[in-house]
C-alpha cells in the first residue's frame, strides 16, 4: 500500500481566508513580512480588482465549503479606505458563504487611525481589530521605527472602542534594546488598562532580510533578563484574567482568535494578495498542499487570476505530515484532541505512535484518553519537542 493511499479524509478541516495588503507608511527595521513603503497614492481600485480575480481563481478548489474566518493583514491594511474594503467584502460574501457571526479581523496601526474611517470599517461587518502598538514608550517606538507615539497609541484604542469594536487585540513586543523588566511591565500594564480582550506579546527577534539583521541594535537584553521579563509578564497577565493559550497569545475567557486557532489546529486557509500563503486539503485525491503568491505588488496585480501568480507550490507528503501538524498544534497550551489528527491530516494517529511514545519518554508530552498536550518541560523546549516529529532525509 502506497503512502498516498494511507491518507483519507472523512471530512475537510475548517476553511479560513487570509487577505494580504502589502503597503506601509514606513518599513520597520525589525519587520520581515512582505511589506512595501508607499511613495505615491495607493492603487486601491487596481489592487482590489486583483484580489477579486485572485479569489475567483481559487473558488474551484473550495466549492461547497463555508468560510470559518477572514483576516486582513499586511503591511498596514488600515491604509485602505472603507469603500475599497466594502467592495472586496461584498464580493467575498457573494461567492463564499460564511456564518453570520464569522470573525473578520483587520490589522491596523495607530498612525492610520481616523475615527470616521474605523466607524465605517465596523459598519462593513469587520468585528475585530488587531492593533500594532508594540510599545507605549516613545523612545522604544523611535528605535523600532514606528510612526506613532505612545499617546497616539492610547488615542487609537479609544477610537476603536468609540467606533464600536468590542473585540480587539493589542500587539506588544519585549526584549527591546535597552529595555529593563520594569519598562516591559510598564508597557504591559498600560495595555491591560486599555481593556483589550486579547493580547499578543512577542519577543523581539532579529530576522534575516531586515535592517536590524545588518545593523543589529546595541544593548539587547541578555537571555536571563529576557526570561525574567517573560516570566513576570505571564504572571501579570494571569493575575488580570488573561489565559495563555498559545506561545505568544493571551486572551480573556472565550476571546481566543478564531482565525489563528484555525492555523494552529491545522485547518485550511485560502491566501490572496501579494506574498499571501495558503494551505488546502483536497479530498478528491487525498492531497494536502501549501502555496504562496508573487510577492511584488506590481507583478501580483499583473498576474492575478492566472497560474503565473503562484510563486511556490508544495505538497505535504505522508512522511512530512506529522511534523507539519505538530509544528502548529503543539504551540497550543492545551495541545489537541486525538481525533483532530486524523480529521485534519487525513492520516491515522497510530502511524506516528512510536514518535509520541518517544516524546512521552523524554518528558515532553502528556497523553490522556482524549488529549495530547505538551508538558511544562515540553512547552519550555518546544522546538526540541517538535523536532522529534521531523523525519531525517
Describe the structure.
This protein has 393 residues and is of the alpha/beta class. Helices cover 36% and strands 23% of the residues. The chain has 15 helices and 17 strands. Strands 9-10-8-7-6-5-4-1-11 form a nine-stranded mixed β-sheet, sandwiched between helices. Strands 12-13-14 form a three-stranded antiparallel β-sheet, with no helix packed on it. The radius of gyration is 21 Å and the shape is globular. The two termini are 21 Å apart. 39% of the residues are buried. The model has no long low-confidence stretch (mean pLDDT 93).
Describe the structure in brief.
The chain is α/β, with parallel strands linked by helices. Helix content is 36%, strand content 23%. Helix 2 (82-95) links the parallel strand 4 and strand 5 (98-108).
Which descriptors apply to this entry?
23% strand; 17 strands; alpha/beta; TIM Barrel; 3-stranded antiparallel β-sheet; single chain; 15 helices; 393 residues; 9-stranded mixed β-sheet
Beta-strand segment tally: 17
The helix fraction, in percent, is 25-40%
Q: Mean of residue pLDDT? A: 93
CATH class of the largest domain: Alpha Beta
Cα radius of gyration in angstroms: 21 Å
Structural class: alpha/beta
- Number of structurally distinct domains: 2
Helix count, per DSSP?
A: 15
> DSSP strand (E) fraction?
15-25%
